[in-house]
Amino acid sequence: MEFRKVQVTGGNSFVVSLPKAWVNDVGLKPKDAVAIVSQPDSSLLIIPRKELREATKSEAVIEGMPGLDKDALLRHFISFYLAGYDIIRIDLARSDAGLRGAIKEGIRRKLVGVEIIEESQTSILTQCLSGYVDLPLKKALERMAIIAAGMITDAASALKDDTAGAAEEVIERDDEVDRFYHFILRQLNIAVRDRSVIQEIGLSSARDCLGYRLVAKSTERVADHAASIAAQAETLKAIPAASVKRVQDMTASSRKAFETSVSALLKLDAKLAEETISKVKEIVRLEEKLSGEILVPRMSGSQVASVKMMLESIRRVAEYGADISETALDLAVSEP
Q1: Distances (CA, A) of 52 to 49, 66, 143
Q2: pLDDT digits (tens, 9 = 90+) for 222-231
Q3: What domain range is 156 assigned to?
């Protein structure tokens, strides 16, 4: 760290000299211009104008080696997407229309803002759009939470819904939540690498990135548990109607705790966050009580396992809401 004195020229202009080593590294010459961006933490970000003018899109190539199936290739693709690459190309080891189709379908189901711009028998070329302006991070998180909350309600309804495919429809919606989750992680990874992006994605400081990373993961896990509840619905059709009603009431409480926690985060409302955490403790106690009341000797082993798994998932939804509320409390405190 270097300390340089601020000098005054002309009576009104404040001047600080630039480190010679940095000037040489970036290739600045006399009369070259630099962009100066004021940061939320009161620091200044200095960017050579040459870099702004000559900025090119980052590119990555995934080599489809023999033995890599569509799931492995998709995992590699998502890794480059999250890292913030603009252009990603997949080169396949051989011509395989079925494999190309499966990869493209996986990209559409799991990721937001990816366009396939070129394709051949052995390659797929994609471009990842930023989406900062049209879909800021907080708006993406809000939409993600709305989908997850709807999954919770519909999963509980599937307990008494005889409509074919009701539970499967809830499970399929988990892909929509994953799309927003990956999109949010991509934005946060780019912001951590480039501080000038933080305000563009709708955050106020670098500290927010870690908090929203944790919240996005909690929301993604809420959707996973909603899908788990729906998966158990068919097995639990045999339990008494009164017990089903109590399970649905507990599910509604968990959903409310989750929704309230997201609201507390977006508003940075510490009081609302504290209220949510207190309600979650009540839901945890309710799960213990219901577990003893619903489980009866005449149930089969599979039914007992399904009931326990379902009640645990409902409780975990509420606990993830408490985690989000704790993050809201952390972010509501101003930086020293």
Answers
A1: 5, 40, 33
A2: 999 999 988 8
A3: 137-332
